[in-house]
C-alpha cells in the first residue's frame, strides 16, 4: 500500500524563531522613531487586549507610533545609560520599561496625550483571576440567544441547563459570580457568553520625554535615576515567542 503524502514528520529544529537579527531590527526601528518623533511616552496597560491595541495603532497611525515589545530590547533602543542614549535623558525612560508597558512615539503635544490617556478606557470581558466587580445571577428560564447545540457546553461550565422543546433552559436560578471574589476560568467564560463585561482596558502614562522639555515623571515610582539599567540582554528564544501576550513585533 502506498504511503500517504500526509504522513510526514517535520523536525521542530527547522522552526523559524526570532533571534539576534530580529532584535537588531527592532532596536534600529526604535532608534529611527527617536529621531523622527519629538515626543516619547512610556505607558502602562491595565487588562491588556491585543485587539484594542491594534485599534489604537490604527487610530494613531497618521502622526504616532505605538511599540509594545520585549522590555530589555526596547531599553537598548532608547539607551540604558547616558553613554548609550541617543538624546539626553532617554536612559531615564529605559529604566521605566518594566512589566506590561509600551512606548508611544508621537508628534502630538504632551498635554494632548496626557488628557487623552486620562479619559480613554474600553470595556472588556474579564479573564480568570480577575476580581468580580458585581454579583451576576441568571434567573431560571429559557436562554433563547443560545443554539440548542450549545447546551452541553453550558452544562460543562457548571450551568444548570437542559433542553426543553429544543430551547436551552436554566431550570433554577444560577449565580455566575459574586462581587469581590476571584473569577474561575469557567465563570469568566460564562460571563463572556452572556455578554457581561467587567474589565476596563486603560493606559496610564508613567513618564515622558520631549525634545523641548526633556524627561518628566508623571507617576511616582521610587526609581533612582542615578543607577544604571541592567545591561544583560536575554537571548532565550522561548521568551521571544510570537504568542507572548506582552510581545508585538515592530510594524
Describe it for me?
- With 251 residues, the chain is α+β, with helices and mostly antiparallel strands.
- It has two domains: 18-122 and 199-240, 2-Layer Sandwich (Alpha-Beta Plaits), CATH 3.30.70; 136-193, Alpha-Beta Complex (Molybdopterin biosynthesis moea protein, domain 2).
- It has helices spanning 20-36, 50-59, 71-78, 90-94, 110-119, 151-156, 185-193; strands spanning 39-46, 64-67, 101-106, 122-124, 136-138, 141-142, 161-164, 167-170, 174-177, 199-210, 214-217.
- The strands form three sheets. Strands 1, 2, 3, 4, 10 and 11 form a six-stranded antiparallel beta sheet that branches.
- A hairpin with a 3-residue loop joins strand 10 and strand 11.
- Helix 1 (20-36) crosses helix 3 (71-78).
- The longest helix is centred in the first third of the chain and has 17 residues, at 20-36.
Provide the CATH top-level class of the largest domain. Alpha Beta
What is the average of the pLDDT values? 81
The tally of domains stands at 2
Q: Which ranges are low-confidence, i.e. pLDDT below 50, for 5 or more consecutive residues?
A: 230-251
**What's the end-to-end separation, in Å?**
49 Å
Query: Considering the protein shown, what is the CATH homologous superfamily of the largest domain?
Result: Ribosomal protein L10, N-terminal RNA-binding domain
At CATH level 2, the architecture of the largest domain is 2-Layer Sandwich
User: What name does CATH use for the topology of the largest domain?
Assistant: Alpha-Beta Plaits
In terms of quaternary structure, the protein is single chain
Number of strands: 11
Function: Component of the ribosome assembly machinery. Nuclear paralog of the ribosomal protein P0, it binds pre-60S subunits at an early stage of assembly in the nucleolus, and is replaced by P0 in cytoplasmic pre-60S subunits and mature 80S ribosomes.
Organism: Drosophila persimilis
Biased composition (Acidic residues): 222-251
Domain Large ribosomal subunit protein uL10-like insertion: 126-195
